[in-house]
Fold:
Amino acid sequence: MKRFRSSLIHAGAVALAIAAGCGSAQAPGAYDPYDLSVSSQPGHAVGYATGDASGVMMQVTAVAETAESAPRRAMRSDSTRSRESAPMMAEASWDAGPQMAPAIAPPPPPVESTPAEQEPTSGQLLIYTASLTLAIYDVTETQARALALVEEMGGYAAQRADSYIQLRVPAARFREALEALGALGDVQSLSWDAQDVTEEFLDVEIRLRNARDMRERLAALLDEAIKVTDALAIEAELQRVTLEIEQLEGRRRSLADRISLATISVYFSQRAISQVPGEEYRLPFQWLNQIGVERLLRL
Amino acid sequence: MNRIEGRNDYGRRVAAWLAGALFVGAAGCAPAALTTPDGMIEVNEPTASVYDYRATTPHGIVVAARQIRQREGTDVPPGDLAFWAEATRLRLRTSAGYALIEEETVRSVDGTEGLRMQFGRDQSTTPYRYDVLLFVTPRFIHFVEAGGETAKFEEAEALIEEALASYRIRR
Structure:
C-alpha cells in the first residue's frame, strides 16, 4: 500500500514538473547572450542557440520531452559573433533568467542545509552549468577579479589553473554572475546548460524515504526476533538497507549541491598584443645594428 | 702562342678591365683606401659581405673598412659626424654591451677630420678591444674598425695603427 502511495506521489510530482517545464512558445525578443530563456515545446526537444554580445546569429531549437522521458535540458551556446540571421524556432521563457526560476520552482536549497530542508514540493530543480571563453589582456589580474566577483556573490573557485577557473555561484545569481564575468573581457564564446533533475531528485527522495521506512520496520522486527537465525538474517538486511540509505543520502547531497550552486567554467585566452620594441637601441640602418667585434672577427 | 691567340688574350683582358671599371662606376662605391701593412694579409670578402676591405694579423686581429652611402640610392638619410658618432656610441654601449674607453679626434691621410672611439667588452673572462674610426663626408660614412682579443691587439698595436693611419678618403 505504501509503495503504491509512493508511486502516486512520484507520478504527481513528475506531472507537476512536466507541466511547469512546458512553457508556451513565443516569438524571440531582442538577443541577449545572457538571456537564459528555456526553449521548449511539447514533444521531442533539443535546445541550441548561438550568438554573441555584439552580434545576432542565434539559433534556438526547443524541445520539451514527454512525461516518460527525463531529464529535460535547456541549453544555450553563444560562439559566433554575427547576428545577420536570427532564426529562432521557439522560446519559452523565463525572460528574467534563472532568478525567475523560483517562480516556477522553489529556489534550490542551500548546500549546507539538511536533506529534510531541501524537500522539493513541486516545480523544477535545475542544475546550471556554463562555459565562458574570454579574450583578455592580463590573465592573472582578470582571474583575481573573477574570483573576487563570485566571492562577493557568495560563491567560490572550485578549480584554478593558468588560463582556467571553475567557479561555483549560488544558482539564484547565475545570470548575474555570467553577465559580470562577461564584462571582464571580450566574450569569445558562451554556452550554458540547465539540466532539469526534478525527477531524479524526487526519485532519490522516494527511495530514501522507503529505505528509511524499511530500516524502521527491520529494526522493529529485530527487536521481536526470537531465533538467532532470524536475528542474523534481519541484521544482514538491516546492514544492506543502511548502506543503501547512505548511498542515497550521498546522491541527494550531491544533487542538492549542484542545484544550489551553479558551475561556471571560465577559459581565458590572452589577447594578442603587438610587441612594443624593447629597450634595445635600434635605428633603421642595418649596418649600424651589425657593428661590433663579433661580426668583425667572423672571417 | 700564335699571333691570333695573343690578340684574343689582349682583347679579353681589355674587356675584363672595362667591365670592372663599369661595374665600380655603376655601383658608385667609394673604393677601399687602406694600405695593408706587412705582417697582415687582406681577406677576400664574399660578394655579400658588408665590408669593403678586411685584413687580419696571424693572431686574428682584424682591421676593416666600409663605406656607407649617404643620401643617394638607399634609405640612409644624411647625417654629420656628430650624428653617426652618437648613433655608434649608443648602439655599442646600450645594446651590445661595450664600454667606451676613450675618444679622440683623428685625421685621415687626405686630411678629413674624424673621430676615433675605443671600446672594450668582455666575453666570458676574455677582454676584447674594438676601435672605430669614423669619417663622414656628404656622400659617405666611412666606418673603419679594428678589433680582437685585447692582449693580442696590444701585441699587434703597431701594425694596427699603421693600417688605420693609412686610411685615405678618395673623392
